[in-house]
Amino acid sequence: MASYTPPSNFGHPTRIVICGGGASAVLLLSALRERTQRPIAVTIIEPRGQLGAGVAYSTPCPAHLLNTRACNMSVNDDPKDFLSWLRSERRRRGFNWGANDFAPRQYFGEYLQARMKSIRTASNMQFSWVRSTADSVLPRGHGWEVIPAQGEPIGADIVVLATGNESPRPIGADLAPSAQHLILNDPWDADRKAAIARSAAILVVGTSLTAVDVVAEFLERRHSGPIIAFSRRGLVPRSHGASAAVAESLRRALPSSLSAILKRVRELTRDDPRGDRWRGVFTELRSMAPAVWAAWNLEEQQRFLRHVRPFWDVHRHRVAPSVHGRLMRAIERGQLTVLKGRLESLEHDALRASLRATLRHARGGPRIFEGNVLINCTGPQTHALKVANPLLQSVVADGIARPDALHLGLATDARSRVIAGDGSVRRTLFALGTLARGSQWELTAVPEIREQARLVAREIDLHTAAAGADRGAARDFEDSRVSFAV
What we know:
Blueprint: E1 2-4, E2 14-19, H1 23-35, E3 40-45, H2 81-89, H3 105-119, E4 125-130, E5 134-140, E6 143-148, E7 154-156, E8 158-161, H4 177-180, E9 183-184, H5 190-194, E10 202-205, H6 209-220, E11 227-231, H7 248-252, H8 258-268, H9 276-295, H10 298-316, H11 321-332, E12 336-340, E13 342-349, E14 354-361, E15 364-371, E16 373-376, H12 390-397, E17 417-419, E18 425-431, H13 437-440, H14 446-485
Parallel strand pairs: 2-3, 2-8, 3-4, 8-18, 9-16, 10-11, 10-16, 11-12
Antiparallel strand pairs: 1-4, 5-6, 6-7, 13-14, 14-15, 17-18
């Protein structure tokens, strides 16, 4: 356990435990530092060797770029903070970094770690880091007890679940061990990817952002073998680019129903060969998404997930132009093939040390493709009852939390407070980041999580103020008893 020793006059701090030490934790700590002067004692439970970067920003591959411009990636209230850090710490030859540039994700990880170091020295903050995972959270009186996988239980007044994305649902679990050796269910396993021969034929299940990262990494390594990526709709994330102004009517009066919104978007983006208008529309929709999502009933949300989500994702979650260009060139020269189809079966050819994937599409018969390795890029498992994370399993099993109705994470209220199995609100238990997507939908990118972190920090500050008042009242009561006795 690493810790920061506070001043001797630190007082009686509010004890906060954050389960997870990635970007979401840094965003919350930054918001707390900016919004409260009251004493707090923060313990982060994170097994990785460094705080801040998490899985997303630990990659050393230079082809893995941020999907958001530098001007939108600051962890604090200063919109130029990340850009200033880039210009100071990672200068480029020639033209230095600009506001609209897409920096390597590794740089953002380094920036997060730098900001974490400065946060840890805040005068009102006591800081501890437990190198472990959290196994369970149990109610204890008016607070909590967090049980790490290694180490002693940790008492807390407030607990924040910030565990990030879970691993994807495994593929090929029923195959023989020799076949499973050819499957990478963890697309971020750097050692196993490095062991893949340059000439190997690679099958990629999924065509979204994770698949883009995997393909870009192999292209960066000058992989010479064929790469076949497939998903049910065969959609690839679009590229960032110029954005046109959106009609005032969209901002002033967005339709409420899903079908009406789709109709309006089609009207606004008709005859848009360069894509300027649809980018402008989706930029506006991004800011409106939480309110629109909250206004829909469960049926409307389910319709969106079932019919519209894949198209929303590729237009909303775009990639850097250089990354998109590299993918398109790989498609043009025939090295990369993107297909539409559902993985119907997977067979192992032991003699050829290969896998045969059978794809089926609604409008055609099955197609069979062979590869030396298969990489699972289907995206994180979100169903709280099916994830491998023992913490999420335990809080649901114990009734501390419950899955949201859409199985996107945990059920939360509008303040990101976790809803228990009996429907009550856990006022001092929060879900930060993707775990709260069921109530807010857009919680995968830094700008949205930063805003959520600010709201959670405000809730924590209000609780800290109330707790401080209660402690003050208790001390006044004890002082009055002493005075009366004298």
